Amino acid sequence: MRKRVVILASKLGYQTRGFAEAAERLGVDLVFGTDRCHQLENPWGDDAMALDFANPREAAQEIVRGLQSAGGDASGARVDAVMALGDRPTVTAAYASAALGIRGNPPEAVRICRNKLRQREALRAAGVRVPEFFSFGLHDDVARVLADDEVQTRLPAPLFPCVVKPLALAASQGVIRANDAREFEAAVERIRGLMESPEIQVMREPGTERLLAERYVPGVEVAVEGVMTNGALRVLAIFDKPDPLEGPYFEETIYVTPSRLAPAMQRSIEECAAATVRALGLATGPVHAEFRVNEEGAWVLEAAPRPIGGLCSRALRFGEGAAQIALEELLLRHALKMGGDETAREKAASGVMMVPVPRGGIFEGVSGIVEAERVPGVEEIRITARLKDYVAAWPEGSSYLGFIFARGERAEDAERALRDAHAKLEFRFSPRLAVEHPVTGKVRA
Q1: Once rounded to an integer, what is the mean pLDDT over residues 78-101?
Q2: Nearest-angstrom CA–CA distance, 115 and 197
Q3: Is 124 a residue whose pLDDT tops 80?
Q4: Thinking of the domain 4-105, which architecture would CATH place it in?
Q5: Which single residue of 84, 164, 180, 239 has CA 20 to 30 Å from 312?
Q6: Degrees (nearest 5) of the Cα angle 293, 298, 300?
Q7: Is 153 helix (H, G, I), strand (E, B) or coil?
């Protein structure tokens, strides 16, 4: 009997194609569930179930009903694994796994991961190194917040620099550094505008009425890609982020692996990552985590039970030569206990650039792709921004213009290729017309 996997993803996610290709290679059937409108008749031609990830319990039950309906009876609900791509579907995946009686992460552990405040509290309680922090209401008076005795206790002087962020958004959306009280107030006001925007309100994310403030941790930033088996973490790759992420906004750009950090520091990161998943109560499947590293060691920024986002997984390959496999295939093999998921990452260095958004505007096109593709070491350039769509710059933004992939003998070679290729690209934007809200009278660009 063919194995069957449920893949949960955003309707606009990039990653589903990679899993579809891996599944075809393995002879595995995929069933997709996305957050599309249930009234649309299969607009993407993938027969995906329409799910509401804002209500994960109900979405999980809808998955069970959909599987039973497709199979004609209760036996139609047979599924071997459920996997979430991106943060929003992770809680639904946990509930669906429990409802289907298959391996998965505890729903409460995943809920903790989805809320930056609860994640901070769980990690601090377990003794994992996290920055000092406090939380406050989105509409609280900022002066009173900063003068509050509890805040002074949680973040003893000096309070600044600190970082202010929403509790649930991903990809550094809404994350702003503040160096003094004036910048703190401006950051809160800007995040308020983002959280009250129609684009965020329609997502119905929990925790939108509170913000998190935490002490800024100096140092370099890295990302860890891993996979868990019965609570034990195997690190697949450590990505260096060679561009400084010092604020005021934190748009990521380049990921390069293998890491160039000292072996002792890499061991410290791996130990911190293992302690993190234990503290959060995660048990199985992919993990993507972010860390700051300085002379004190590794500090957890966040961890999530899902694979690396966007198209970045294309920077990871495992094995050598004709037997080489992609991250998606490794994760499917692991979830289905098919073997072959123990393969180590390739020997070559690799990297990806998430092409940054230089300014918000209507995307009108890009030139220089042919020249950029000729840069030695560059393997592929994928422009994912759609013509005539509005693209927001950080901190309001959360999606990139595209991805550049490169490989080389050393990490330095891959990084150089990414930078040289990006320098040849020229993106064009036009301004978005201002529109006055018919009720509030507020003008939005």
Answers
A1: 96
A2: 20
A3: yes
A4: 3-Layer(aba) Sandwich (3.40)
A5: 164
A6: 105
A7: helix
Task: Collect all residues with Cβ–Cβ distance below 8 Å to 182 and sequence separation of at least 6.
Answer: none
CATH number of 352-445: 3.90.1170
- 270 neighbors 235 (Cβ within 8 angstroms): yes
What's the token pair of residue 443? 């003008």
Specify the domain boundaries for CATH 3.90.1170 within the chain. Answer: 352-445
CATH code of 132-215, in short, is 3.30.1490.20
Cis peptide before 166 (omega within 30 of 0): no
Q: End-to-end CA distance of the chain, in Å?
A: 54
Delimit the CATH 3.40.50.20 region(s) of the chain.
4-105
SS3 string, 5-55, reads EEEEECCCCCCHHHHHHHHHHHCCEEEEEECCCCCCCCCCCCCCEECCCCC
Average pLDDT, integer, range 361-379 = 98
Instruction: Give the residue, 195 or 13, on which the prediction is more confident.
Output: 195
> Binning pLDDT at 50, 70 and 90, where does residue 61 land?
very high
Residue 421 carries which side chain, given as an amino acid letter? Answer: A
Backbone angles phi, psi at 154, to 5 degrees: -70, -40
Could you tell me the pLDDT band of residue 1, with boundaries at 50, 70 and 90? Answer: confident
